[in-house]
Amino acid sequence: MTIVPLKLYFNEKGRAKIEIALGRGKKLHDKRETLKKRSWDRERGRLMREKG
Length: 52
Description:
Number of domains: 1
Oligomer: single chain
Shape: elongated
Helix content: 40-55%
Number of helices: 1
């Protein structure tokens, strides 16, 4: 679990307040999908540079 800041503001007394939320990390299968997409995007960029 990760704490994620959503909003930062100051109240009437001049104190800073922050609105936070909890976030859950990716599951293993989600991470694999992200890595595949990132790898393909990188490879596609290389191919496009070689052709052009």
